[in-house]
Write a structure and sequence with these properties.
The structure holds two protein chains of two kinds. By secondary structure, chain A is mainly β. Chain A is built from no helices and eleven strands. In chain A, the strands form two sheets. In chain A, strands 2, 4, 5, 6, 9, 10 and 11 form a seven-stranded mixed sheet that branches. In chain A, strand 4 and strand 5 form a beta hairpin. The model of chain A has no long low-confidence stretch (mean pLDDT about 90). Chain B is globular and about 45 Å long. Classes of the chains: A mainly beta, B mainly beta.
Chain lengths: ~120, ~120
């Protein structure tokens, strides 16, 4: 089955620690995205990547970092510089090629991060 | 500036009622794309529909229908004969073609369908 996997589903970290959230897709999509969702709010874009070894900041990139070494993987690191990291994090991917250039984004199940 | 507004934060209906979720957008692009997503309690977003700015035809898919009106910058979503399984948070989103196809989301509308 093709899809997007995120692990872990729930993550707890102590204040001041960096933590990395995993996102893997087997849809052969070129573009991948990371969003943050706070309670009762919409999603806000953190980072996105259109191709391997390239990524761009979204609207709220401060305190986060990413890498895109493989097409299938787009891990997100929440650093200690992120002032309020407790949130629900969603990873997405889309085809973004040829006739599918403006296609929908497919989302993973999300990771709920809580800072203790 | 790109912006999506979903003025209804929460709607509660009784099963079998019809319900309309409003979405108003702002964009300077002449070409743009609008989306609706459903977020059930599990958290994963489920794609419902995509509409491009050139196509103002309304669309119907089973109990779901969408009304796109460029003149009022609105893209409203109607569920006919609602069911308990429709209970979820619904997001309207605007795609930015000139910015890596990023999506700008509205704040979402929580729909509660009671039996």
């Amino acid at each position: 089955d093709g899809g997007i996997t995120q692990s872990p589903k729930y993550l707890f970290r102590k204040e001041g620690q960096n933590v990395t959230l995993s996102c893997e897709q087997n849809l052969n999509h070129d573009a991948m995205y990371w969003y943050r969702q706070d309670p009762g709010q919409g999603l806000r874009l953190i980072y996105y990547s259109q191709i391997v070894n390239d990524f761009q900041k979204g609207d709220i990139a401060e305190g986060y970092s990413v890498s895109r070494e493989k097409k299938e993987s787009f891990p997100l690191t929440v650093t200690s510089a992120q002032k309020n990291p407790t949130a629900f994090y969603l990873c997405a991917s889309s085809r973004n090629k040829g006739a599918d250039f403006y296609n929908e984004q497919f989302f993973g199940p999300g990771t709920r991060l809580t800072v203790l | 500036a790109q912006k999506v507004t979903q003025a209804q934060t929460e709607i509660s209906v009784v099963e079998k009622e019809d319900v309309t979720l409003d979405c108003v957008y702002e964009t300077r692009d002449t070409t743009y794309y609008l989306f609706w997503y459903k977020q059930p309690p599990s958290g994963e977003l489920v794609f419902l529909i995509r509409r491009n700015s050139f196509d103002e035809q309304n669309e119907i898919s089973g109990r779901y229908s969408w009304n796109f009106q460029k003149s009022t910058s609105s893209f409203n979503f109607t569920i006919t004969a609602s069911q308990v399984v429709d209970s979820a948070v619904y997001f309207c989103a605007l795609l930015r073609p000139n910015a890596g196809n990023m999506l700008t989301f509205g704040g979402g509308t929580r729909l509660m369908v009671k039996p």
